[in-house]
Amino acid sequence: MRVDALLKTLCLAKTRSQAHRGCEAGCISINGKKAKPSAEVRVGDVVEIRYPRKVTAVEILAVPAG
Asked: Fewer Cβ atoms within 10 A, N terminus or C terminus of the chain?
């Protein structure tokens, strides 16, 4: 699943376009590397989201369907 769609599905971003802009700004990383919006997320990956006042890291245990 694409990282921008995953963030929307997990309610870590309000919209997919907001997640897309976060990736473009360099605020989203997968396993420590900056992620493009189309980057595929797999089980075991760690997705890190840098918000203005906090950092959230999420380990992917299962990729949601749709």
From this structure: C
Q: How far is CA 57 from the centre of its chain?
A: 9
Q: Over the stretch 20-63, which tens digit does the pLDDT of each residue have?
A: 999 999 999 999 999 999 999 999 999 999 989 999 999 999 99
Q: Say if residues 1 and 9 touch (Cβ distance below 8 Å).
A: yes
CA distance 14 to 21: 12
- Exposure string for 43-54, b = 16+ CB within 10 A, e = fewer: eebebbbeeeee
Give the chain as a 3 state SS string: CEHHHHHHHCCCCCCHHHHHHHHHCCCEEECCEECCCCCECCCCCEEEEECCCCEEEEECCCCCCC
